[in-house]
Amino acid sequence: MGMILGKISVETPKYELIQSTPDYEIRKYPAAVIAQVTYDPTNFKGNKDGGFMLLANYIGALGNPQNSKPETIAMTAPVITNSSEEIAMTAPVVTKTGDGEKNTVTMQFILPEKYTKAEEAPKPLDERVVIVEEGERKYGVVKFSGTANDKMVKEKVENLKKWLGRDGFKIIGEFELARYNPPWTLPPFKTNEVMIPVE
Are 187 and 146 in contact (CB under 8 A)? Predict the structure, then answer.
């Protein structure tokens, strides 16, 4: 019942709140170890979130973990997705816009903080899943509820860019969309965030 009403019962990334305004927050996130997969969403026949299944299999969320130990790895939220096209996301997700590659999506799971180096995480059995380390980063963040459709996300991104520019922050990358709840959470109780990296 809790997940339907928006309860987030998995580990989420810790961050330092640098600044809070009525419009947005500036947050600093520590380094993290990430499992990621880059794929062409057209290869998944209508399921543009096919990377989710590859990563879920790696951590053992859907059965036996597909990694070298084999070790079940706790699910965390949000999931991160870098995309060069607008995609409808399911599950707890963060969407980062493109890296220049056309029609590809890079979906990432932030691994639990017990993994401090990439080599500490179990090696994926599927070569499409790669383990990487991401350094400390700073973001401007807007939090909102509801279903994060393309129109709503575009509006949130445009407003956040405007506010960051107004307040003198330098944007250093594309936006990310964070989704913290599974698809069956009732829309008014969903937690979403638009995040834009800043200096």
Answer: yes
